[in-house]
Amino acid sequence: MGSDISVELRQRFQNAQSVLVLTGAGVSAESGVPTFRGGGNSLVWKGMPFDVISSAQMVEQDLNAVWEWFDYRRALLSELRPNAGHHAIARWQEQFPEFMLVTQNIDGLHQSAGSKDVIEMHGSIWRARCISCHDRYQIPKSKPRPSSCQSCGDRLRPDVVLFGEMLPSGAFEQSAKAASRCDFCLVVGTSALVYPAAELPMIAKSAGAYLCEVNPELTPLSQFCDMVLTGRAGQVLPLL
Ligand code: BJW
Ligand code: ZN
């Protein structure tokens, strides 16, 4: 363990044929995005913990409150920029025969850094979706969000995956397929507590991939990793 990157690790990474990167909130921490858990920095909105306000139940009970919470977070995010960790990951996409980036983040910072075909397991804060017909709408950075569905007129909700909700169709299946094919799996900035995202590294490991974690803290995944790089994404990833 430790954040020293050995020659062996660097060679393993550089010679990989198929790379899967799974990211969580920690990759955006150095951009100024608060993480959900740990560090005494848990998200709370008007006295409600995030898993109460970011819940399917709250969408049914008080959709306006949910929008207020997401409008507030979009406003914060619109000022933030990708960091060296996002940029390193974006550079890698051209460097391997196969490369896939799966993120649990809804902030869009990987795309801002230039990453393409990102699988957003938990949706995007920059989209809204109709509660009836499920049509999706992009939310512009500097204009008001659309207020109702243009197809059916019903209300819109944030296009994010809340606790107890299903992931976007195919997102897990596509990620699990990449996990079972990859020979190097890099897990960055996630507490590895939320499923089914937390299953992906174990799928990769079971299929024989080298498993490497980048995180300043240990997680439930650390014990299964071939290498744990204890450090911040923005500092460690550019060294790989
Ligand atoms: C740094 C750093 C730096 C700091 N550099 N690192 C199996 C067992 C038990 C429960 C379940 C199960 N399968 C499903 C469930 C239920 C549930 C679940 O997993 N619960 C667990 C908490 C126990 N899962 C779901 O409900 C999922 N849906 C589902 O499974 O559907 C099928 C189904 C339907 C009905 C019933 C049952 C199943 C959906 C999960 C959706 C998660 N949504 C959220 C909120 C999004 C909206 C919003 O933003 O408000 O997604 S929750 C929140 O957690 C968010 C994140 O994407 C997700 C993961 O968090 P992440 O990214 O790991 O962040 P943190 O904060 O936890 O960790 C940050 C890490 O970064 C830390 O480790 C730091 O050390 C590190 N760090 N600085 C690198 N500079
Ligand atoms: Zn509609």
How would you describe this protein?
By secondary structure, the chain is of the alpha/beta class. The protein folds into 2 domains: 2-33 and 81-122 and 167-239, 3-Layer(aba) Sandwich (Rossmann fold), CATH 3.40.50; 34-79 and 126-160, SIR2/SIRT2 'Small Domain' (2-Layer Sandwich). Helices cover 29% and strands 20% of the residues. The protein is built from 9 helices and 11 strands. The strands form 3 sheets. Strands 5-4-1-9-10-11 form a 6-stranded parallel β-sheet, with helices on both faces. Strands 7-6-8 form a 3-stranded antiparallel β-sheet, covered by helices on one side. A two-stranded antiparallel ribbon has the order 2-3. Strand 6 (123-130) and strand 7 form a beta hairpin. Helix 7 (171-181) packs parallel to helix 8 (199-206). The mean pLDDT is 94. Residues 24-26, 29-30, 35-38, 50, 54, 104, 106, 122, 160-166, 189-191, 193-196, 214-217, 219, 232-233 line the site of ligand BJW. Ligand BJW binds at residues 24-26, 29-30, 35-38, 50, 54, 104, 106, 122, 160-166, 189-191, 193-196, 214-217, 219, 232-233.
Provide a quick synopsis of the model.
The protein is α/β, with parallel strands linked by helices. The protein has 2 domains: 147 residues, 3-Layer(aba) Sandwich (Rossmann fold); 81 residues, 2-Layer Sandwich (SIR2/SIRT2 'Small Domain'), CATH 3.30.1600.
Query: Order of strands across the widest beta sheet?
Result: 5-4-1-9-10-11
Query: Uncertain segments of ≥5 residues (pLDDT<50)?
Result: none
Small molecules held by this entry: ligand BJW, zinc ion
Q: What share of residues are in beta strands?
A: 15-25%
CATH topology of the largest domain: the name is: Rossmann fold
Distance between the termini: 15 Å
Gross morphology: elongated
Secondary-structure element series: HEEEHHHHEHEEEEHEHEEH
Quickly name the level 1 CATH class of the largest domain.
Alpha Beta
Number of separate domains: 2
Q: Averaged pLDDT, please?
A: 94
| Largest sheet composition | 6 strands, parallel
Determine Rg (CA atoms, Å). 18 Å
